[in-house]
Each structure stands twice: as C-alpha cells, then as structure tokens.
Write a structure and sequence with these properties.
Layout: E1 5-7, E2 11-15, H1 21-33, H2 47-56, E3 60-67, E4 70-78, E5 87-95, H3 104-118, E6 123-129, H4 133-141, E7 145-146, E8 158-164
Parallel strand pairs: 5-6
Antiparallel strand pairs: 1-2, 2-3, 3-4, 4-5, 6-8, 7-8
Helix pairs in contact: 1-2
Length: 168
C-alpha cells in the first residue's frame, strides 16, 4: 500500500516504517498481555528486531493505524511458504487495548481485505490463541470461520481460521 488512507476520526492507515519497529513491538506486547492471564510468557525474542524484519520483508506487508499521531493498530501479512499464491496469512493483528471498541480494528481489517483483493488473494488464513475469546469473536464478526483443513486438536494453543475473499 503506497498511499495513506484517512478514515473517520483522523485515522490514517498506511504501511509501517522501519523506524517504527520499537513502537510496533510495544503495541504488540500491550495487546498480547491481555490474553495471558499470568502475564506475557518469557521469551528470548528481540521483538523490535523481529518487527523491523517484518516491515522490511519484500514479500510481506505491515499496515499500521495512526490516530492523532499515535500508533494504535498493526497488521502483518504475507503469502506463507507452504501456501498457494492466492492465499495470504495474517500473522499479526493487534489494536492497542486503550483503543478497543473504537473502530480501529474494523478499519484495519477492512484495509487488509482491500489490499488482499488488490493483490489477487482469494483466501486469508490466521491463527488465534485458543484463550483469546475477544479476538475470536472479532474475527467471527468479520466473516472468519474455523479452517476445516486444520481442526483444533488436544493441546493446540492456536485455532486456525479462514476467510474467503471470493464472496466480496
């Protein structure tokens, strides 16, 4: 996406910039912390570096939502290595918890769908943490369904969802 789009309430949705990786990583941590009841699990991931890599990937895209000059939403997607070229995977989708229920997620989701259709994608897939009921409800409202090719098994930590872009 090369041009920024303005939506209601001064939302700007655009491609994230490499220099924004630390802010993206901070938003990611705040959003993830909400669905881990005991706090974020310890990991050795350098999240700012990981986000900078995602932003700079030539085969992927990271969209961000800016409201009044502040980063409030992010989405990272690309065609996964093991998928058909008409399939896109939404790897990360987060809204800063202080901006939930204000239309940020829906606006970002609409921008993702628009980009996917422009890129010729017919199907989108994602994995959502099984304990994240709020996110699962959000995705259901936006047409995502459990992926029959990847049923949830005992011990799975993520549910795989699928969205058909053909019906649009």
């Amino acid at each position: 996406m090369t041009t920024a789009r303005r939506t209601a309430e001064t939302l700007v949705i655009r491609t994230a910039l490499p220099a924004e990786a630390p802010a993206v990583a901070g938003l990611h941590a705040r959003a993830r912390a909400t669905y881990y009841p005991d706090g974020l699990p310890a990991d050795d991931v350098d999240w700012p570096a990981r986000w900078q890599e995602a932003i700079e990937r030539p085969d992927g895209q990271v969209l961000c939502v800016v409201r009044d000059g502040r980063l409030v939403g992010i989405a990272s997607f690309r065609v996964p290595e093991d998928a058909r070229e008409d399939t896109v995977m939404l790897f990360q989708f987060h809204v800063d918890p202080g901006h939930w229920r204000r239309g940020v997620g829906s606006a970002l989701h609409a921008a993702c769908r628009e980009q996917w259709r422009a890129d010729g994608r017919r199907t989108a897939v994602l994995e959502v943490h099984v304990g994240n009921q709020r996110a699962q409800a959000f995705y259901r409202r936006h047409g995502w369904l459990p992926d029959p090719a990847h049923p949830l098994a005992d011990g799975d930590h993520h549910l795989r969802l699928r969205l058909s872009l053909d019906a649009e």
